[in-house]
Structure formats: C-alpha cells, structure tokens
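Hey, I'm writing a tutorial for new members on how sequence and structure tokens pair up, and I'd like a real worked example in the thread rather than a made-up one. If someone can provide the structure for the chain below, I'll link this post from the tutorial.
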Amino acid sequence: MLQNEHLRPHSEKIQPDYLNRLRDWLQASSKGRFPEDELKLHRSAALAYADPRRPSIRSLYQMLCAMLDHDGNLTGIALNCPSYEYFRRLVLTLPADYVDHMRYGRGIGLWDIVHDAGQIIDDIATTPTPTRS
C-alpha cells in the first residue's frame, strides 16, 4: 500500500480527550520568535502530520516554506521559514496517541506492528503456491 493511500474513511470529529491534549500542545507551541499568524501556519502544517494520508515531516516542511515564499512574493514582505529542526520538533511534540489514532485509526504499539506482520506471514504461508505451466 502506498503511503498516500487512505486506510479508512476519515470523517470523525476529534475526540474530547484529544482536544485537551491538543490545547496543551497549542499553548506550549505558542512561544517563539515568530508572529502569531506565522505560528498559526506553522502549527497548522505540523498538525497536518496527523492526516491519514501520512505525509512526511519533510514534505510538510517543504510545503510550509513554499507557502511562506509564495506569500512573501505576493505581499512583498519577506517571511522567514523556520528551521527544519524547529519544525520537526514542533511535529514531534504533538500528542503521540492522537497522531497514531488519526494516521492509523487506532493506537499503535510495537506489539500491534509485530502482530500485523505475523498475520501477513500466516496469510502468505496458507496461500497455495500457483503452479506454472
């Protein structure tokens, strides 16, 4: 399955227990050297990491910089792109269980990953080998 494919329909609302953690994340990420409108854009791009299409941090960072460059060209006001390390840290401070739920549809632990891989091996082992003519 390609990384960009949807794993499941994604029409659910954010669960209340995640709202408090995301609110805490927003408060913690509100400190910085950027104006509030730029911080909002940074946080929006970081939050997009939780999308079920599972974008990479690097692709989101490149998109964010391209948006800031485009905005700067339109307005004539140069906007500074944050460093990759800053953006990566912002993404990695998102509540992990929220990210896992949104990207994969359930909490993912190492046990789940190994269990799923075991299921694939079992499926392969029980599938008859096609005969070649």
